[in-house]
Design brief:
By secondary structure, the chain is of the alpha/beta class. The protein has nine helices and seven strands; from the N terminus they run βαβαβαβαβαβαααβα.
Length: about 290
């Protein structure tokens, strides 16, 4: 996929790329010269519930040196996903990198709400778009990689996979995303295709920047001091895609900051932020918001 760390000729697909880590992954791959197909439901700015759009991501991809192709896709619709990959096969003849990032983020994330009080729909949404969607995308992506006898699947996840974060459905979703990568890796390794999970640290996303005034000051300062932009995750994906020995990492959970040290890249401000903890202990004591 790579020549001298560059990804010219590499075809990558990033799901859920209108903002956040997905957008960062698209930009990081673009910096290495890849062609990136980006999916999202929001085409134009100001039409979604969060900042960001397909058009904005594609513009950033082009400015960063890559070729961007934005495709509107609802990843809860299997037929739409099948048509997406048929288009990739028809237009590009195959696929080198799949970044499974799409996630049904609620408008308001329940924090410290007991599982018996969160809406059941929260579980369903996280499992449908954020886990099942990754499985479906992987099913359609792998045949396009088998022809090339190489490939990379990256699931974006977080430390929520091993320790309590926000609420029960969120943690279960992250844990399952990590396990999905591990079990995919087991079946894909004989074909030269790697599958991994990556964990960014504290993220300074468009949503954080837009709603920082609502974040407790101490937490906002911690995120600013120790956090990273989503582009760091993108540079991690590009480094993995450029590594001819990436199959040696298949099945692993990889921390973005640790990859930055290993491969020698930095965030947009030149820093390498501290890696998040792998300690499964909760970061804070659970205190139900209503005391029940």
């Amino acid at each position: 996929m790579s020549k001298n760390g560059r990804l010219e000729g590499c075809i990558a697909l990033v799901t859920g790329g209108s903002r956040g880590v997905g957008k960062g992954c698209a930009i990081g791959l673009a910096e290495a010269g890849a062609t990136i197909i980006v999916t999202a439901r929001t085409r134009k700015s100001g039409t979604g519930q969060w900042p960001g759009s397909l058009d904005e991501t594609i513009a950033e991809v082009e400015r960063s040196g890559g070729k961007g192709i934005g495709i509107e896709c609802d990843h809860s619709d299997d037929k739409a996903v099948e048509e997406l990959f048929a288009r990739v096969a028809r237009d590009h003849g195959g696929l080198d990198v799949l970044v499974n990032n799409v996630f049904a983020e609620p408008k308001v994330m329940p924090v410290n709400v007991p599982f018996w009080k969160v809406p059941i729909a929260l579980w369903d949404d996280f499992q449908a778009v954020g886990l099942r969607s990754h499985f479906v995308a992987g099913q359609f992506a792998v045949p396009l990689m088998l022809k090339r006898k190489r490939g990379l699947i990256v699931n974006t996840s977080s430390g929520g996979g091993i320790r309590y974060t926000f609420n029960v459905p969120f943690g279960v979703q992250k844990c399952c995303v990590d396990r999905l990568a591990r079990d995919m890796a087991h079946e894909l390794e004989p074909f030269g295709i790697a599958a991994v999970s990556i964990w960014p640290g504290y993220l300074m996303t468009e949503k954080f920047n837009a709603e920082r005034h609502r974040v407790p000051p101490a937490l906002a300062k911690s995120i600013t001091d120790r956090g990273e932009t989503p582009v760091l995750a993108g540079r991690a994906v590009a480094a993995l895609a450029s590594d001819p020995l990436v199959i040696q990492k298949t099945g692993e959970i990889l921390l973005v900051s640790e990859l930055a040290v290993e491969y020698g890249f930095t965030d947009v401000d030149g820093r390498v932020p501290p890696a998040p903890s792998r300690d499964p202990a909760p970061l804070s004591v659970f205190r139900p918001v209503d005391g029940n």
